[in-house]
Every structure is written in structure tokens, then in C-alpha cells.
Write the C-alpha cells for this entry.
Amino acid sequence: MAPAVCGMLLGLALYTGSLRVVSGAAFFYHDYCIIGAGPSGLQAAYFLQQAGRDYVVFERSHAPGSFFALYPRHRKLISINKRYTGKSNSEFNLRHDWNSLLSHDRRLLFRRYSRDFFPDADAMVRYLEDFAALLKLRVQYNTAIVHVTLERNAQAWNGHYFLLTDQDRQNYKCSSLLVATGTWVPNVVNFPGSEYVEGYETVSISPEDFAGQTVLILGRGNSAFETAENILGVTNFIHMVSRSRVRLSWATHYVGDLRAINNGLLDTYQLKSLDGLLEGDLEDLAIIKDKKGKLHITLRFYLENRNTSTGIDSITLPQDELDNFATRAPYDRVIRCLGWKFDFSIYNRSLRMMPGKGNKKKYPQIKPSYESRGTRGLFVLGTASHSVDFRKSAGGFIHGFRYTTRAVHRLLENRHHGVPWPSTVYPITQLTNSIIKRVNEASGLYQMFSVLADIILLRENATAFEYLEEYPVGILAELETQTGRKAPNGLFVVIMEYGRNFSGADKDVFYYNRAVGEAQHAWQSNFLHPVIYYYKRLPTEHEMRLRPPDWPLPRPDAVHHIVEDFLTDWTAPNAHILPLRRFLENCLSTDLRNFFAESCFLFAFTRQKLPPFCRQGYVRMQGLMGSEGLRRHAIDAGLLEDYAPTDFSGDSPPDSHEGSQDQLLRDHTIPVRPLQHLVNTKDEF
């Protein structure tokens, strides 16, 4: 074997993929190829490794998380690191840990890497390095994939293989491709004079370099406000211009909008301290540089059919016609902070990787299953997959895509390895408890609200149910094929939602009486709260397409809102649990209450059909053992009658049967009461 090939094999000895030679061209084969060792790439690698699959991660840098080595430029993350919640439940705590990836290793919780509520980006770099190293993930560093194409093959999993080529012209072949490169190509707007604009990715981060200067910032996202915040105290003034109005995350409930940590410019603007915000289409702008190096803002149409080389004095500026034109003052610097977009350049046309439409054009087009619309077997993970829930949920951020990545893994396990979506079967008596437990603990439901949902599949005659966690609701109609589970008897869908008209850039989310406190008005809840949809059969693709605007699901046969709670603690017996149980009972036409053994004994003699709790517990001699203390507590609560022991008198011992019948009839008359009095109409448990 040639020395070069031997060296190549030695360098890749850690990987389970095999070297193959076809028509003289060598390539390495893996079942799964992941492009990018950022957070989503490492998360996918973890799940594949836990499942024992053949995979490799390609990373162009020498270490994972290279994006965070540079961004954000001013090194302050806006993902919260809440180290204390008052709870010891690890699943609940992930609701407020926006940086940790999912793993079994308790050492890999981000709170061990930073004590800051808004951590430094360098802590994220260290965290991702440890995540890859401690879990021994198979990452091939210094490997930049420069071209991806398809090779048709009927024997392949998806009818084709993916062929990848790196910067050294080494070839790789895989059956499934997971793209986790994120969005890292800067958004650039071209207009006359755009060559004078500095990019966020290269502009100085030293405030002293801006001392006494006048600055114009193009953009209105967190990177723009982050840049402004850094130089706010040293500049003459800062103006910010963008096509859309400012969107505050507390109003839109979208974490990608402007966060409070960066919004100091809003104070100085509204409190008349020279800084200001403007709206306008950047493509209509033009920048002219004068002899002193000052930058003047004008409009593109003023420059049409004019020779700009003659100098600024011969060019008409807006202030020549409108003397109070807002940006008439010249600027020392103009900075572009317009975010990033997906890199489409490395994908051959055969993959049909197309950009989205409208405000989603920076992302590739994908299905709600995160699979490319153009190519089967190509999945997009992480930030680049945010088109599924753009401006709706957290799928573009670590605390969201760690769950969508797990969902993609489960879809792949079912499709390629025959491993059904994980589920647990419970008796129907545990239905209320199971839902209450999940809505109070589950972090995936909480972070990916309106996108991921728990699915409850009912068994025949509603005697039991099968519980599936965090399934993408956008592919609910495909549930049976995507999960390997059957839904012939109806289902419940448990999801988290905000109020329909509560979120928006123009909404006042602090108005009086903004919260609902009573269960009968739960459907008017504004803040994030659980919603349970009931379907007698699985919705169809057609019904999914025709669902009402802004509804995550089509119209159900019944729906129940659990009233919002200030503490996000849905355990109140009367406000939360009782209405939920009655909703479930109405849907199933059954009694989901728990009963004492005495009540079940009475039911056995007075009813044709026992409640499920009695059938599954009492009749099978299961349940809590009785005790005098428990009986006395039930009597004091009015749940059981107090049948006092008979006071035997005379010469006969208490256990003698002689005369016992006459004694009972004479001394201990059992009162005749209606059935509903003997079995208290209150809930027993």
C-alpha cells in the first residue's frame, strides 16, 4: 500500500469508517457524516455515539465551537446561565440553563464553567472543547468540506450516497448527511459607497478607538446594539438605521430579538441624549466620502446618472432640499451589523439546497422534520434549521436545538435502524399524573413551545396509554411512519403555548390585568401555559396544511388550556389538576379518580362497570395498604362513613356467633343513605 494511503489510515484510525477504493479513487465511508463541530454538531455526535452508530464529524478549525472563538465580538453571551432555581430536579433546571448540551455526564453542565448570568464566550469555547474530549466524540479537525454532491445508488439507504470533498481533495462517502454549520456568512448590503462600511466581524472592539467620533450603525439586532453598547460612553452620538422597527424580546417572547442587556441605546434615544434610531431601506442609501474623510449619507436616486468622481460639492444631498434631513450630519464611521446567513456555496446543484423565502432566505429550505426539501437523507441541525420556528420559538439557539437535534436522531433511529421512538406505557389511571409531571418538569416542551409536543397514544377501550416525549408537531400526520408507533384509538397532544394575541413588537405586555388567574378563563391565558389537544384519530396531511393561522395544530375534537401560573407551577389541585382531570374524563367517557378500597368494594356490588382505578388496583389486590390512621383521616375528611365497632354485652365472647345476628339487628342499625352519599362526590385522591 502506498505510504500516503498508510498515513491516511493511521490518521483516521480512531474512526470506524472504512477506506474503499473505486476506479482508483480512495474514499472513506461512514453511515453518518456531520459537517461542523459547533454545539449542534457535537450534540448530534453524542446521540449517534450513544446509539453505537458509525459517524464522523468534520470541523474546519483545530477545535470545536470555532464560531464562539470570535463571536460575539464583545464576548458577552445573551444566553442565560441561571445556576439556582430552588429546585433539585435536573430536567426542570434545564429550563433555565440555556447553554448546556444534553448528556449523561453531570460534569458537562455549563454552570460548572461560568458563574455569570450572561457568560463570557470564552467559557463556551472551553465547554465545547471538554464536551468533545470527555465524551470522546469522533471529530476530525482541520478538515474543511469544500464540496458536497450526490451519487445515485439504488442500494443506498436513501437511494443515493453523499460525496464530500475536503480542502486536500480527500473524498468521503456517507449514507446520511447532517449539516450543522450554522449561519456564519455575514449579511452584506451593496449600495453606492458600501466600500466605506466596516463589518461587525472586523471592526475594532476597543472603545478608545471611537472616542469623540460620530457613528452610524446599519442593523437593529443584538449584534448592532451590542456594538453600540460598547462605545456608548465615548462617542459624540450614535445613529442606528434599519428597515424594520426595533423588536424587544420581552414583547415578542422571541429570544433572538433585542435583549435588555444590550438596549442602553434605547435609553439615550428616548431620554434625549443625542443618540437615535431611524427606519429605512438600506438598499436605498448611498455613502459619499468628502475630502476630510467624513461620510455623508444620501439616497441612491440622487446619484443616478451623476459622476461622483467630480467630488461631493457637485452632488445634491437630501439636506439641500430638506434642510432638517435626519442624517444630515456627517459620520466618522459606518458599521455594518446585519447578522449572518447560511453558506450555500459548497453544495452541488444535485442536492437542491435552496434558500428560504422572505425573512427566511438566510436559511435553507427544510421540512418540519428538519430534512431538506430537496434531498432525502440530508438533515439540517442547529441554527441553520431555524426556518422551522423562526421568530416563534428557540430552535435557532442552544437551549432549543439541543432538543430538535435529539428529535432528528430519534427519527433516524426509526428510519434506518428500526428503533421506534422511545415510549412508556401506563395504565389509564396515571394519565392525569403523567401530564402534570411533564408540564411541570419537561425542559424540551418548555423551550420549544409550539414546536415540540408530548404525544399520548390511547390503547383500545382507553385502558392504557403510550407516552411519547417531544415529538415535532409539524409532522404529526406522519407519526406512525416516523416513530414506528400506532395511533388507532385516538391521541392527546400536550404542548406549551403563549396567548394568541399577547406577543408582538407593537404589544404592551405590561398592561393591567394581563394575567388570568381563574380556571374557567384559562383559554384566555397570555403567558406560557400547557394546552392539551384531543383527536379521535390522527390528523391528516390535508388537515395540517389547512390549520388556522398561527395554530401549531389543526382543530381538535376537544382542547383544554391549563390556566397560566405566575410560578410556572401547575400543581394547584383546584385551579390546575381538577379541570384537567375532568377534561380527560369527558374525552374518554371514564372516571379517572382514585378511590379507597371501601369505595371500590361498594362499587363491585352496586355497579355494572368499575372505575379504572378499581379495576386495575383493588380487584387485582394492588394499591395502598390500609391502616387505622389512614381510615381515621378519611373519616375526618368526610370521605368514609364511621362505622363504629359493635359493643357486645352479655356472657358471649366478642367472637362468638351465638346471638350475634339478633344483637346486630337490635343494637346497630345501619342507616340507609343514597349511593352518592356513601361514595362521596368529592375527589378522594
User: Anything to note?
Assistant: The longest strand covers residues 25-35. The chain has a mean pLDDT of 87.
